[in-house]
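S., here's the first fold you wanted:
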Amino acid sequence: MKTNAIRILESHHIEHATIEYQFSEEEIDAVSVAHKIGAEAETVFKTLVARNDENEILVFVIPGNFELNLKKAAKASGSKNIEMIKVKELQLLTGYIRGGCSPIGMKKLFRTFIDETAQLQDKIYCSAGVRGMQINIAPNDLCGVISAKFADLI
């Protein structure tokens, strides 16, 4: 199965691998995904979508075993404050559903920030754009393909 995210990586000739796993509605969080694919939780990154005080949509990609620090996210993005979007807005804004939101291939290229700890890993995992599939990719390649910036977010 090729998702939009995978097609984008292939069109840019970016080295990556995919891994599929069985999922359930109760276990779509990044820590559960890490367990299912046999990876360390700090290498499985979750994609979070937020809105700043100017109504700009921002994307934050952080290790699955951490929570986004909203003050650090605001600072990284040059915003006064940040709040998470409502789950019901996710698909409308990004084209993705909760548990299958990839930072690659959203409806629009939003300003995106990847937690700086990603740079400590040779490869990280992120959603391939559907529940049950992850992409394994070098952090710098992910950063480049989505025009992201590394920042202290946790």
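And the second, which I think is the more interesting of the pair:
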Amino acid sequence: MKEFLETGKIVNIHGLRGEIKIMPWSDDAQFLCEFDVLYCGRDKKAFEVENARVHKNTVLAKFRGIDTPEAANALRNSIVYIDRDDVELEDGTYFIADLIGLTVKDADTDAEYGTVKDVFQTGANDVYEVEKDGKSRYVPAIPDVIISTDIENKVLLIRPLEGLFDEN
């Protein structure tokens, strides 16, 4: 598993004191405001967060040592990461990055349906795109369908809805 997870992108600067505007890649922009340290760029340089707040579905953040618009602008277009160890997920919730690549199998027959290629957040429930042989099927992430998620062994056991994987 990756130590650092992509969680957004710095898209602009804000004001004259070195604040940056982050477009979050999470369910809730407020999630990013809870971190004391964020990591930026390819080298994942650590920045201590002095303050952060949600503003129009983005996050305005001030990093310690970034005090001018010029210094903030140097971070523009950087990917923002969090350290996996800084997050405690609730039971039954997972990082999308950990779900992608899981082998999807039938909980009853052990038949292999493919691998999770993407996760779509629809509002009501997530939907997993499962691909096999270049063909995609869409599996709703609901308790009736998802039986178990084993991140360590990279296996997702499902009980598919009727007709989902029928070839006809």
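Why I say that: The chain has two domains: 4-84, 96-158. The two ends are 37 Å apart (CA to CA).

Talk tomorrow,
H.
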